[in-house]
Write a structure and sequence with these properties.
- With 415 residues, this protein is α+β, with helices and mostly antiparallel strands.
- The chain has 3 domains: 26-135, Acyl-CoA dehydrogenase/oxidase, N-terminal domain (Butyryl-Coa Dehydrogenase, subunit A, domain 1, Orthogonal Bundle); 143-263, Beta Barrel (Butyryl-CoA Dehydrogenase, subunit A, domain 2), CATH 2.40.110.10; 270-408, Butyryl-CoA Dehydrogenase, subunit A, domain 3 (Up-down Bundle).
- Helix content is 47%, strand content 13%.
- The chain has 12 helices and 10 strands.
- It has helices at residues 26-49, 61-69, 88-101, 103-122, 125-135, 207-210, 261-268, 272-297, 309-335, 343-368, 380-388, 397-414, and strands at residues 143-146, 168-171, 177-187, 194-200, 211-217, 223-228, 239-249, 254-255, 299-300, 303-304.
- A 4-stranded mixed sheet has the order 1-4-5-8.
- β9 and β10 form a beta hairpin.
- α3 (88-101) packs antiparallel against α4 (103-122), α4 crosses α7 and α4 runs antiparallel to α8 (272-297).
- It is globular and about 80 Å long.
- The N and C termini lie far apart (49 Å).
Amino acid sequence: MADVPSPAAGDPLVPSPAAGDPLLPADVAALQREASRFAIRLREEAARREWQPDPADRVPWPLVAEASRRGWRTLGLPRNWGGGGASVLALCALVEALAWGDMGFAVLIDQTLKVERILARLAGPQARRHFLDRFLADDRCVLAICLTEPETGSDYVIPSPGFRFRTTAARRPDGSWVLDGTKRFISNGADARFAVVFACTDASQPAERGTSAFLVERGLPGYSTETVHEKISQRTINNAVLRFDRVAVEPWRLLGRPHLGFAGAREILRESVIEAAATTLGTARAAYEMALRHACQRRQGGRPLAEHGNVRARLGRMHAQLEAARSLVWRAAAAVESDGYDHRLGASAKLVAADTAVAVCQSAMELHGGLAVMYRECGVEKCLRDCLSFLHSDGAQDSLALRIADLSVAALRDG
């Protein structure tokens, strides 16, 4: 993989830990080092792009192509599919490092990693060939997963017996399907070449047993982007409202068994919340490092801020909070591929990491004083804006807390 030149010593954009964390396996630490150096350029590019009026100009496509050449866009695919066959821990190290530079870019890559893992497990031979031929040949091909709808949000995180997706797919006598519905807030929605769409195919059953997953692609008649959302967060990835108006779906585009696509994807993507947790910590770490540097340089009351006891105590808590949250994320990442995985662990990692990230970013804002709210004069405000998105993305915090509680009650009852 190509290397990114290191900046001069003392450059405020140098990520930490620049040498790779010693607790990680050697290959994962090397990946972390490389992505950390790449993230320096991400930060600079995001500052230039995020407020472009045209959403098409906000995505740094040359850097997406470069990340592809480094193997990161395909890191989650099995090696026999042409991917990296990476562990969940490696994916977490990657997205945390990228999110230090720009959360939007990290999420763009992570969404693609999630969808490719669903396809690797559920796609049949024809869907696999169709997807891989195009995905591997196009280093700017990104992917989307279509769950959230205008009428449903966290329902799919803690599905009740009455939950059904409003998007539907009706089966024709020849085995093909007709897809109808709307999805919103979809990451990469405006730019994804392929999307995995979840639709109700048996309304007599709850979502776990009545939802199918389909591989669709831009250009199919009836598949359109209605709106690109304007957001305060993650502005370098385009979230969109997608409309499916009687989209004809060939039989081979069905992923997995009919009516069990949602259940299958949930099991495959049990690490999704863990990667989300790692993403939030990358951005929060950037905010902490900005605050630390500012505290050492800014003089207040006749001496640097860092010489005031209350400031040092706050910096110490920020560091400890990040380390504690990362330990939980790495523990969940290491456990997710083991037998008997406890889903409470991944949900807990995201719940704790997202809350920690927002708290650390808020502390960083306060340590910067009035400078923090000056538009484009202080990067820490972007960190807070970005981290706020993960109070909802990949499951709202209260939804995850309820899921943890439900699993705990069930474990006690069955125990």
